[in-house]
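Sharing a chain and its predicted structure for anyone who wants a worked example. Both blocks are below, sequence first, tokens second.
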Amino acid sequence: MSTDKVRSTKLKFKGEKSKKKRKHEGNEEGRSSRRRKQEDDQEPEAWVLPDDPTQIRGPSFIFHPSDPSPICVTFDSTRNRIILHSLDRDKSDEGKENPTLLDRVPTEVSQVWVITRVAGSSTINLRTGVGEGKFLSCDKHGLVSADREARGPQEEWTPVILPDGMVAFQNIYEKYLSVDEAAGGVLQLRGDSEEVGFAERFWVKIQNRYKKEATDEEKKRQAGIVEGPSADEASVNHMYQAWGAGRSVVSGADKQEIKRAKKEGRLAETMLDRRAKLKSDRFC
């Protein structure tokens, strides 16, 4: 057998540089790396998918891959109620095909929810982007509404990013937000699902600037860089009101100082009681 290598039959001009073949990154890490590079090149206001629950913040677009048409969670400020709006109705140009599912972006302000997070907490609050700013809440019966101007335990949600990149929202009752079909075929939100299935999975898009902000904060945290406290909700609440059903939340050092002060106060009271008793014994 001949040991000569088979030569390529492709024509090649003199002086032409050969191109190196790139290996295809078919694994999940390679795809994520390419997506991150594309997002780095995008504008700060571009809508992107979060990779970590801490990145879910700021203006957000929440939609569900329903059939036959995907729907998004919308707030109707006129009727003061949540609407699951069909995205296929939003055609910017007549005759143009609808974009692919993951290329969807909000087309009006009512489709945007502003997500805030107390520093150091795993829970988030979802506030409407229109009207007076109402918070998405869920009661113990699974009824979901957006008619409260103040936030409490029922307005807290824990986002869970699933392996496929979709997001599930868990409430304080450890139940999940879901799309449910009511009487007459009307779709509505419920908050009483025990498990995560198709109805409990949502796509969430955030703005690129907030994703970068969260990524930078995580890098600083891992590097051990601790920044000074900012004027966030946690510090403001600590300054102006008590937490935890009227109890003030303090550090361990503060607790020890309070205990020591109480102990010294009790000793002082004991000494005063003894002196008063000695005086009364003298006059008896």
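Comments welcome. The chain is about 25% helix and 25% strand.
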